[in-house]
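Thought: the user wants the 3D structure for the chain below. I'll pass the sequence to the structure tool as-is, report back what it returns, then summarize two notable features.
Action: structure_tool
Action Input:
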Amino acid sequence: MFAIIGNISAQDSTVTAKPTVWTLQSCIDYALKQNITIQKNKVNAASSAVDVMTAKAAKLPDLSFSTSQNVTNRPYQESASTVSGSQVITTSNKNSYNGNYGLNASMTLYNGGKLQKNIEQQKLNSKIADLAVSTSEKSIEESITKIYVQILYAAETIKTDEGTLKLSETELSRAKQLQKAGSLNKADVAQLESQTSTDRYQLVSDQATLADYKLQLKQLLELDGEEEMNLSLPELDNNNVLQPLPTKTDVYMAALSQRPEIESKKLNVQASDLNIKIAKSAYLPTVSLNAGMNTYNMSGSDYGFAKQLKNSWSNTVGISVSVPILDKRQTKSAIQKAQLAKQTSLLDLQDEQKTLYKTIEGLWLDANSAQHRYIAAQEKCKSSQTSFELIQEQFNLGLKNIVELLTQKNTLSTSQQEMLQAKYMAILNSQLLKYYQGEKISL
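Observation:
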């Protein structure tokens, strides 16, 4: 059974089509595509993928072309000699011109394995960025589920409030008739009027709470607060409330192997190991291959431009080796800081694991407690309903006064609210336990 409530409207989107009726799953699917935090993390992940390509490209040779064009003026020098290829050119022209052209390439052959380690590190960073996307997606799923269950609770609370208000209005109407017949005094009628006003206020207050939860849901979905949205809410029964709970250990072990925040912390530890190796590579020599082609031309030569470039052409190739000896403790300090960073990564992993266990333990305890409270609340609600009906009959016969009737009515209302609170607390926490265990949230 499903009830359509709402109007929570939806904004126009050219990216994702919006459903006519919003279920929990359609809310989650839409948020995974539209939520701004998730989109930002996806952009960061794409940036990390670019960093991987950059790190790989660092192993390739670079190639550059350079040229310079110069004009020289000698206002006080009568003549000047310049070497052009195999010729010595002497000129009395006070202005001379020359151009240089070069094509140069270089490639790192060896630098202690730093290039390869940088590639591995960027790959890890890319995986961590992808896991950040998964973490934000799981976080938004949990947030939507919590708000959705709150909406279910608020909607059912309103139904209870409406029933309570209707009952109060019926009692007030009957009391006024009894007052006219002289069977009930004005003070008793005033108490019933006050109770009716209280029940009406409670209904309005709970309606405002429901509207606030709907607004929170739309904000998670990146929808405009004024947009229309039909929300489909399932009617949940005891099978949803009292479903068997997995053990805390089973949930925790499953979560350790698949929760993205745990995997991210593990990768941070691996990245810290690579940082240590990269820092140590600074102790090793760097070997580079260099090659170039250069030529030039100048004014005052008997040869034309093309002939000058040919005569001046030169090719070079060489290997350079740089061996670190003293670097003012820079490498040693970098290694020590990388080692300290690894200790921090290990502590972050332990902290995340403890936080995960604490979260799961809290969910399990809340779910277990809520299930027991729900069973007790059902019994209490039944007995309160029976007691109220008896006192109501006795009141109609003049055997009970108005205070006793209202007291029992409030007791019934309180027991109904307690049952609803336990019901949806059990549903929410049992669903989150399943989610942490790797199962899909479903209501």
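Final Answer: Structure generated. The longest strand covers residues 95-110. The beta strands are 2-6, 21-22, 62-73, 80-84, 87-91, 95-110, 230-234, 286-298, 314-322.
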